[in-house]
Amino acid sequence: MSELSVLWALIRATWGERLSRPLVGILVVVFCASKVLAASLTHELDDPSFYLTLLFAAGTVGRDVSSGVLPVLFTRPIARSTYVFAKWLAAGTAAGTIGALTIVVQALLLSHRGADVAGSAIAASIFGGFTSAFGISSVLVCFSVFLSGIGDIALWGGLILVGKLSVRYVPQRVADEWGALLHPALDWGAASGSHLVTAFQVVSYLSTVSLFLCLAVMAANRKEISYAAG
């Protein structure tokens, strides 16, 4: 069985496990419906990818450890790096794709009501949603390797709160860098690379995502897993 086949099987299994939970399905509908409603009231596109990412990426590795699935999974010839990348891709693609479909629905609704929605605005929202989804997923997957259950969300939320509370005591640039580290994302302008600062933002985003994924793989490779873990 090739690595790509294993990767795809793990991605599908992750999607199936997450979407099989009734609460997750309900929350996806609630998040997306509320964003469509907000867009209809404000006449502006409203991307739900942030909340969807938290929903799909929370405890993506930690739950497997707590439930005892991971020790069984690793008795098979599966590279731990493949497992980590599968979890990241599953969370990022699920949140980004559902978010993109929600944006398209918003655009169609606004267009039907006579609002002028530019194609560039739709593309910018979808692009930002996907980069946010894959960025946050890389952070949460990394944290999830270290913490069981949904401890990754608690740690991420705590670090975000620390950054917000420290604004009064540290330079604004430091606070911004801290926020960018925990919430890697790009906007449409940064993708063009037409200016030095935007090229730097693209490189910074890719570096941050790569850093968290590398840390996750290193931690997973060193992690002692037994049937008593969790």
Relative strand content: under 5%
Number of self-contained structural domains: 1
Order of helices and strands: HHHHHHHHHHH
Mean pLDDT: 89
Rounded to an integer in angstroms, the radius of gyration calculated over CA atoms is: 19 Å
Proportion of helical residues? over 70%
Largest sheet: number of strands, sense, barrel closure: none
Put simply, the count of helices is: 11
**Low-confidence residue ranges:** none
Shape: globular
In total, the number of strands is 0
Helix-strand category: mainly alpha
Q: What multimeric state do the chains show?
A: single chain
* Alpha-carbon distance between the two ends: 29 Å
Explain the overall architecture:
The model has no long low-confidence stretch (mean pLDDT 89). The longest helix is centred in the middle third of the chain and has 33 residues, at 80-112. The protein has eleven helices and no strands. It is mainly alpha-helical. The relative contact order is 0.14. The chain has one domain (3-222).
Which features would summarize this protein structure in a list?
single chain; 230 residues; mainly alpha; 11 helices; globular
Summarize the structure.
This protein is mainly α and 230 residues long. The protein has 11 helices and no strands. The protein is globular, with a radius of gyration of 19 Å.
Task: Record the SSE blueprint.
Layout: H1 3-19, H2 22-42, H3 49-57, H4 62-67, H5 69-73, H6 80-112, H7 119-146, H8 151-165, H9 172-182, H10 188-192, H11 196-222
